[in-house]
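dumping the sequnces here before i forget
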Amino acid sequence: MLKIATWNVNSIRVRLPQVLDWLAVAAPDIVALQETKIVNELFPVEEFRQAGYQTICNGQKTYNGVAIISKTPASDVVTDLPTFPDPQKRLLHARYGDIAVVNLYIPNGMAVGSDKYAYKLDWLTQLQQFLYERLGQMRLLVVLGDFNIAPADEDVHDPAAWQGSVLVSPAERAHFFQFIDKGLVDCYRLFKQEVHSFTWWDYRAAGFARNHGLRIDHILASRQLAEHCKICRIDTAPRKLERPSDHAPVIAVFDL
DNA sequence: ATGGTAGTTCAACTA
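..and the predicted 3d for all of it:
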């Protein structure tokens, strides 16, 4: 069994104790982390090593930053979209045996029509090319992370209120469905799930307490990998702790 | 239509 998870931790410095506690309980094999907000030199590699995990990271000061921690070593590490020079650290690819992992922190986009929204769409366009190439290379591919896209209205607590916003705009959703068209499978939707299942809740206005959230963190798998997916679920337990991340982890289990 | 909170950093930006 191979257990793979994604979690936007919103600062690894603040969340390290929660992540270590969660690893001890959930016992995943591979975890993709986003918004680590730390340069590589300061990433708590030793703390994870003592917990039985190896680290690769692609970080920066203050913003963004991705990392993958794993029980087995990584190979074929890629930290950038080859066709998109970008000072923002948002992508980390590695291979673990036969499986390739693409950890994403897709830009938020701030507001439809803004410069940041244009940057998000450009970034997504270049990502499509990268994923196309990876799918040609690797039979078993998992693409996971904070996509900052809620693919359908069922992934939004109040679709009418979100109409016209980033994370739900038609252009962003079109990119998500381009992933699906490429042969990537949304593992979460392979299984019957509760309605109003979300992975992110705004810190403001008691978003979590009222379940005012979005499903924007995803685990996509190539068809040949998705065939082996036995479980995919959102773990809301860490979101209930004191001083939580605004995102909950998503976990997928494969019988490999 | 605005504001609500959190993290980094210490005024302002991002989410």
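The first strand of chain A starts at residue 2 and ends at 8.
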